[in-house]
Amino acid sequence: MGLKRIVIKILISGAAILTVMSLQGGGMKAKPVSVKTQQAAMPQQSQKSIPLFQQMAVFPDGCQQPLAGGVFAFYRFDIKGRKQYRMKSGKWQLVGNPLTAKGVYLAQADQVGVVGITGTLGDGNFYVERLRLPARYAVKLPLPVKVGVSQGDVTVNGQLVRGHDSLPRVYAMRVAATQQ
User: pTM (2 decimals)?
Assistant: First the structure.
């Protein structure tokens, strides 16, 4: 019964956020703005970062808070269905393990849970995958997160990115990790 209440709370919260976000837009197409985020582990901190989404932890009691940390990689599929990871150079390349391969662009969520990407984004779709969890908790994140770019507009899981103050949220169930 408790899990059902948590799921209902998540759905209601998500619906409320979508409603507020659609009201803020007023039906007008907003262009995403590159802003500098305070991401401590971004490999290229001097470049401007495009914020994509804010990850939120949802605790078993239904409480929500920004989820900082974790390591993310960006990938897309080539015409043969293989994963190509985004490199620091901005190119896409096949790699074995993105955590250990040289030159793979890795991002970390900042202290308020914002995950962003530096450089320019060409039209098309790509995905964000978590490679390493933050802190000592197991996090069930609905991955992959789908990012779409079309004529300068950026969407995350279908929601338009309107800037740092109005980012789409990605919710993660946060549960205590078991000791092994």
Answer: 0.67
